[in-house]
Amino acid sequence: MKIASKIFGLFVFSLFIFRSIKSQQIFFSENFERNTLDSTWHRISGNWHIADVPDKKIAPAENGNQYVLSSGGPGLLYLFVDIPATIKASQVKLSFSYYTYSKGPAPSIQFDFYKKNFKDGNKGKLWKAVLPVKGRWMTFSKILKIPAEANMVWLTFYETPSTGKVPGSVCFDNVTLSSVP
């Protein structure tokens, strides 16, 4: 009897996990393995580029990826992604991996929702974070509420100038945006 209830409990839990994963819809994913930045990325300042992991002399990237987005020094990089009209979710999950040298500067990110063809554009509350410097690959994930009428995501990666730090030491990989019901 106890075994049957444990098996049933495991079945219900598995079903819940499967339904949660199935209900998420990825609408942007980039792992830089094409060794190029497409038109959704906009270099504002700095030397953002695709770097070869062995050339950077860093730990292997997530899933054995060979290429990563590298800052190359202080600067800003924007990512603009349309939220598909088919997404009826109320939240977006942002996730990515990042690498910092242990004596490098802390990378920062900003995230905002945007409404195209709207006078001021902004529809959400700007969210900012300074990511911890760990000297290894870290996974970052954040769920943000989609404001009414927002139809675009505006994500900013930046490395700020800092004295006494190794510049150009920030790398990003596996950037993903997905809907969360």
Main pleated sheet: 6 strands, antiparallel
Low-confidence stretches: 8-22
| CATH C-level category | Mainly Beta
CATH topology type: Jelly Rolls
Helix-strand topology string: HEEEHEEEEEEEE
> How much is the average pLDDT?
83
Q: Specify the oligomeric state.
A: single chain
Structure in words:
It is a single chain. The chain has 181 residues and is mainly beta. It has a single domain, classed as Jelly Rolls (Sandwich). 14% of the residues lie in helices and 42% in strands. The chain has 2 helices and 11 strands, in the order αβββαββββββββ. The chain has helices spanning 2-23, 53-56, and strands at 26-30, 41-45, 49-52, 67-70, 75-82, 91-100, 107-114, 127-130, 137-145, 152-159, 170-180. The strands form 2 sheets. Strands 1, 3, 4, 6, 9 and 11 form a 6-stranded antiparallel β-sheet that branches. Strands 2-5-10-7-8 form a 5-stranded antiparallel β-sheet, with no helix packed on it. The longest helix has 22 residues, at 2-23. It is globular, with a radius of gyration of 19 Å. The relative contact order is 0.26.
